Amino acid sequence: MTPPTGDRESPDAAPHDGGRPGARPDDVEAGRPDPRDPAVGLRLEARQLTSPLAHHGEGPVWDERAGALRWVDMLRGDLLSWTLPEGWDGERAADDDVERHHLGDVLAVVRPRERGGFVVALERCFALLDEGDLGRVPPRRLPDVWDDPTIRFNEGACDPQGRFYAGSMAYDAREGAATLYRLEPDHSVHVVLEGLTISNGLAWSPDGSCAYYHDTPTQRLWRLVVDDAGEVVERRALRETPEERGGPDGLAVDEEGCVWAALFGGSAVHRISPDGDLLAVVDVGARQVTACAFGGPDLADLFITTSAEGLEEAEPGAEPGADRDDDPLAGALFTVRPGVRGLRVRPFAG
Q1: Do the Cβ atoms of 50 and 333 come closer than 8 Å?
Q2: How far is CA 38 from CA 3, 121, 279, 339, in A?
Q3: Rounded CA gap, 183 and 304, in Å?
Q4: Sign of CA dihedral 28, 34, 39, 40
């Protein structure tokens, strides 16, 4: 692994005892050089964790308080939750152990709140859930951010200041229709970036000096340089992914400052250094890889969501993925233990 990017430890660093995370034999120890690209130091294989429960799985996030992984079935408007069993060591999760809660027509992204509960981005508005609300009352909606019904929220995350960012996209993915917004703790909304197309994948470096971001059709990973107040002052292209390897989608950042980028259509997650070098490839058993997040008690497991959007729909009553012969695991959740930890999730301060 690459050396840490700074001398001081980030307040968001994963809890640990000074050693590396334990390696499961069929993950890290099975890592191998990539014969297709000798510059890649490691190639890993993700294991299937759930059946294809989601139509468009997205936005995984580790809920440290609950010891649970949360992710969204975005276009069904559902929040999926799985509480890790004590002593979990990578075993498959039973479908009955995954809870599903319907929160709206679209549920684009969810993050924990400092006071408990969640902040979410629905189709065109932000909404809040207090502690204990989930499964009991609907989200408390804030005013619509825009009126255009052809545009919806897509992806997001919280910055080190506890502000909630969420980007948008047009349903027809038309160029320039998307915007990246920021919800402040006082619930005011500000525009961060305009003229985007598919706003995706957002996470901050361990020291908070920059964020990493995808506008998918550009095929580029962008570094957003921020000032001391957390405002974006510069956008630089860090790496361009060839189209044949998939479209850059959701992403996560590890404790060493490297980016883990999901590739929609590419059946993979790439680990990219702060300098833009490809360090590792995680093979995923579904083509449409949407996002990834570190989780588990030591933040050493990488959870990976996938999508069946655009694939042939199953007949009513059929088993999940039954008629998707070319991509039967589309919509399943995957996991890999890559030998590096992630960062603590920043909760929303509002």
Answers
A1: yes
A2: 21, 41, 10, 20
A3: 26
A4: negative
Tokens of 225: 């340089």
Tokens of 40: 């890649």
Which pairing describes strands 289-295 and 118-121: parallel, antiparallel, or unpaired? unpaired
Residue 169 vs residues 5, 22, 199, 203, 228: alpha-carbon distances, Å: 33, 39, 6, 18, 29
What whole-number distance in Å separates Cα of residue 48 and Cα of residue 244? 24
Using an 8 Å Cβ cutoff, are 206 and 13 in contact?
Answer: yes
Catalytic residue among 27, 249, 254, 327: 249
Q: Summarize the confidence of residues 110-121 as an average pLDDT.
A: 97
The predicted-structure confidence for 276-318, as pLDDT tens digits, reads as follows 999 999 999 999 999 999 999 999 999 999 999 999 665 545 5
Q: CA neighbours within 13 Å on the CB side: how many for 96?
A: 0
Reply yes or no on whether 249 is catalytic: yes
Quick: pLDDT tens for 117-135: 999 999 999 999 999 999 9
**What is the reported pTM?**
0.89
pLDDT band at 56 (very low <50, low <70, confident <90, very high): very high
Helices (H) and strands (E) in the chain, counts: 0, 25
Place of tokens 């850059």: 248
Which of 106, 57, 345, 59 minimizes the C-alpha distance to 200? Answer: 59
